[in-house]
Amino acid sequence: MPDARRPSRGTTEPSHALTRVVAFMNQKGGVGKTTTVVNLAAALAELGRKVLVVDLDPQAHASLHLGVDAESVGVSVYDLLLDPPGPDGRGGTDPLDALRCVRPNLAVLPAVTDLAAAESELASAPDRQQRLARVLEPLKKVYEFIFMDCPPSLGLLTLNGLAAAREVIVPMKAEFLALQGVGKLFQTVHLMGQGVNPHLRVTGVVMCMHDESTRHAKEVVADLERYFAEARDQKLPWSSARIYRPAIRRNVKLAESPSFGQTVFEYAADCPGAEDYRALALAMAKEWDELLARLSRPPAAEKPGPEVVVKTGARKPSPRRPAAPPAAPGPAPAAPQVVVRDDAPPTRAAP
What we know:
Helices cover 32% and strands 13% of the residues. It is built from 11 helices and 10 strands. The chain has an 8-stranded mixed β-sheet, with helices on both faces. β6, α7 (176-194) and β7 form a beta-alpha-beta unit. α1 (33-46) packs across α11. It starts with 19 loop residues before the first strand and ends with a strand.
């Protein structure tokens, strides 16, 4: 009997045009990053989208949040990074061996504590930053959304996530120190875009544990919006970034649900946190569908522009007539003579 926790190897035909690969990252811990990854993925799965969560944090909090105990994990992200498929997609550890289907339309590549050793074990590998990208390539045929929960650091695990992603979303709290860290994080994305992954872009920021009634929160949000507005006309990875709405309100149910290995929708489906993540998932699904629709629309045929008539005021030249034959040469005309009179100014005599 096949293992119900793993997808069938025969179901690899893509049911979607493109896969949205997003790295969720923040150098500061405790900002709601893992909570956002898990509950946003679960909300999209409820909408019928196939979603994969990639746990890149050695603490394995995303795996625990989805009910996957590290002690029960066989093949994990650690094994995939140490023995990934080759550049041609062959060999290595099969990513399907690590997949755990935890909910309908929702799966996870779990992490284990040993993942912390991967950074030192891969330090001398020439392709150490591109290994995760090779792991995820065959999984794009199965999943429409791939969310990576990056650790709160800028080590090799995070760099693998940035190399494999097309987008970066930053969960953060509306605090001054968190705002200062975002600028440095964006510079890291910029450096990755100049080298390893030139397609990497910052999509936006998700405000977590938010209390919009405080003056400080309003000032931080206003500063962040001003920062994005100043980058609109510049060629930067965050030139089109925005603050996602709605913000995720502070809610104790979001903090309690991981201890039961449940998403917030299973633990307290009607709490404010569940409402916010559902609304955010709808917004992300809508913007993704609109992008796919624009990409699939055939380019409009270029129509000839209207004829422009410019009036200059000059008379329209008459049709050119055939030139008359040249006249026979005759005597040269006589030069004009000047006649001087005493009572009149000099006049020109007729030839």
